[in-house]
Amino acid sequence: MNDETVPTSPEGPQAAPEGRKPIGPVILVFAALLLFAAAGAIRTGGSTRVRQDTAMLDVMSGDMYLKLSYLMGSLKHPGGGSRVQRRRALDSYTQAADASPSPRALRRIGLLSDNRAAALTAFARISSPKTTELVAKIDRPTLKREVAMWRRVYSGARLSPAEAGGYIRFLRRIDAGPARYIAEERIYRSAGLTAKAETVRRLATSRYAAHMIAVAVVVSLGALLGLAGVVALIVIAAIPARSRAFLRLSDRHTEDSPLQVSLWLSFLAYLVTFLIASAVGGVISTSAVEHLPWTARANYIVSVQIGVHAATVLAALLILRRLLGLAGGSLGSVGLRSRSPIADVMWGVGGYALALPLFGIGALFSLLIKLFLPEAPTPPNPALTMLLYASTPAALLGVFVLAGVIAPLIEETFFRGVLFRALRSRFGVWPGILVSAAAFALVHPLPAHFFPIMGLGVSFAVLLQARDSLLPCMVAHGIHNSAIFLLAILAFRP
Questions:
Q1: In sequence order, what are the residues at sequence separation of 6 or more whose Cβ sits closer than 8 angstroms to the Cβ of residue 434?
Q2: Lowest mean pLDDT, pick from 161-170, 274-283, 466-475, 476-485
Q3: Contact, 470 vs 334, CB < 8 A?
């Protein structure tokens, strides 16, 4: 192992020899990080893209409120909670359409509108030139067919059972979110199929009430885990410094000069590989937009992104292994090892509890950013976008593997195992923890995600410092991403 503790003397810790501190790779890595952040800002900074991202977030909020209205209805909330939540959902959809008119927002507005005229106005906008200019050409005939369907359903004329069945099948191929059940109920009632309409209502109520109860349970468990983390942090802060030695936060570390260079170059290679793979994935995804229908296109894009990330992992790990080998090291040199896997897994669970308070503090800073910089919206996480678009169980499983397994593996390896170790050797433990955490936050959607993600990065680096293994970091990271994945499915997916 090339990572060793430098003994201390009565005069204080011994400094690492200056000859072992290469500066060139450091400059290259930080220049690449700035370019990475700039590329992300350019990619999401166009006015059209910003409006689309804002609209997507508003639609997601509306879907959550609509699901909540079913829960309130099932509980027979005395304050008219169901109507209040539906009004909030309609307001969110309206904000989305104002920011960037899209079929998904407009059809939801129509379905939640209180009167026929307002509904038909919203439906008519679905195939308007302003809406369809951002829609693939292959989808435009489908949108015109959809508008004709809504006019027929809302005409007041009685539908035949055959018409109703055709409309239901068509409805299930478009993105209406939780409002789909509102449309199905109306179609069945228009055809005189009252029993089926009542069945749809009961199904939607039970389904979405269960979703929101599950959200409350997950959030409550997270709150309890976070509270335990707060208590643990207070206890750790209160005990004598010598009793905190198990965290090894006062240790000094250094690596041989060749290994330091390998670490810096490995992280640089990871950033370059990720940028190249993302660009290639974007080109491949864009090439299919005009040739595939919406559902097939969504799953295609999800598959491409999963493949891109898997290829990035493989290429980056192969480069890392090669560079470490040239310096006399191995993947174990960056923490890809575990002397006690069970203990490391338990450390990961406990470490995530300690990370939650820092994540919560970061979230408060994010709220301040939203208050003081309302014109600087944060784009949604790409994994969340893929989750919303995935329309088959296989695609959903792929997104889960990407978020819960691949992302923790690659990000912990390079931000903690590589970058933190390189920074720690050159600048010390705490500068390494803070700077690597900030770099980790920079590659996530900005600006609002910066502080919560940095809080997680600090916690994960402390885990690596304490255990000298990346397994606890990956476990904690995987728990966090899996919990977010579960909440997103329950709150936002139909």
A1: 458
A2: 274-283
A3: yes
| Alpha-carbon 298 to chain mean position | 17
Task: Specify the pLDDT at position 95.
Answer: 92
Query: Rounded CA gap, 153 and 148, in Å?
Result: 9
**Rounded (10°) CA dihedral 245, 247, 252, 253:** 140
User: What angle, 0 to 180 degrees and rounded to 10, lies between the N-to-C axes of helices 47-75 and 81-99?
Assistant: 170
Residue pair 166/151 in contact by the 8 Å Cβ criterion: no
The rounded distance, in Å, linking the Cα atoms of 360 and 288 is 40
- Single pTM value for the model: 0.84
When pLDDT is averaged across residues 259-266 and rounded to a whole number, the result is 86
**What pLDDT was estimated at residue 50?**
67
Burial class (CB in 10 A: 0-12, 13-18, 19+), 215: buried
Domain extents for the chain? 4-45+239-492, 58-209
Please give the backbone phi and psi of residue 8, each rounded to the nearest 5 degrees, phi first. Answer: -100, 160
β 12-13/8-9 pair status = antiparallel
Beta strand 8-9 with 4-5 is unpaired
Q: Give the pLDDT confidence of 47-93 residue by residue, as tens digits.
A: 566 677 778 888 989 999 999 998 887 766 544 458 889 999 999 99
Whether the Cβ atoms of residue 378 and residue 446 lie closer than 8 Å to each other: yes
